[in-house]
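Please review this one:
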Amino acid sequence: MASSAHHQMRSKLSVAAAVLLLCAAGACLLSSSAEARPHHHSESDFYSIVGYSPEDLASHDRLIKLFEEWVAKHRKAYASFEEKLRRFEVFKDNLKHIDEINREVSSYWLGLNAFADLTNDEFKATYLGMINQNTPASRRSSSGSFRYAGVAAGELPKEVDWRKKGAVTEVKNQGQCGSCWAFSTVAAVEGINAIVTGNLTSLSEQELIDCSTDGNNGCNGGVMDYAFSYIAGSGGLHTEEAYPYLMEEGECDHKDDEQQAVVTISGYEDVPAGDEAALVKALAHQPVSVAIEASGRHFQFYSGGVFDGPCGAELDHGVAAVGYGSSKGQDYIVVKNSWGSHWGEKGYIRMKRGTGKRDGLCGINKMASYPTKDH
């Protein structure tokens, strides 16, 4: 028979689930685009951003209440009460980690997000999707040219944001499919297409998952260069509307309807590896596909600020660099992720540049590439 404590816990969780509403506006916001660290404002402002307060950590009843609010906000459903209890324990451990880091670091902050009931191992197994770069032939050779090599550093603008230039679509969500490589590829192609044609068109990740199979493995990972090769060789990529995302692998449908619009590219080029200056040169001209190590617990719960690690350089996640700039003396690259708009800064992360490391923060300088498109 369950203990009285167990009954009490069940009762509190059940009652809270029945009566608590979603977080009030601003009370559990998980992302911030503010330039200044919220600590520089009031404590209440900061804790409204990260989704908890110190009082939540001091009371078991407050923890239960916070968990139920979080469950409702993210529409979580568990198969059994025992599973819910297990997730509550994971949630508590993650919250403790988030609070510890927020007390230690000053350039960025962590917050409760949709991954808060997942252990880091579970998170890593589900939400990444780069093929292991240590495997043979993990990267297809491009033309070998780098068209921005001759651009002088002094000619570059101090900051670039392709979102403001109309070359970045809304943040998307790969869900529980290791298809980050497809989202990274699509973001870069959407960008160059908008720059060349003036039309920002949301394109199909699902087509890449289903059809770009020469070296790529659908929801089990892939490489952006392979996907660029597929698009260049297949006649183009269909729109998101024509070939919508399913969050799973499907049969390749080339949609041979003449009425279906496609976006083409002429090829792709690799940014010289380990060369941050070259990456910035490319990024000044167009959004760029980059690979990073995103499996760390700090990255999992990133909520805002200029992220400076810790992280390694074992590439496991494909994302898109869409700008660069500086904040309070810290240079950064703006990165578009594919975990939805409630992660990070409305779906984005600012990653520190100028670290002095050849590979860059989280390996961002190791494997950057971009599509080319004839004018």
About this structure: Confidence is low (pLDDT under 50) at residues 1-37, 134-138.
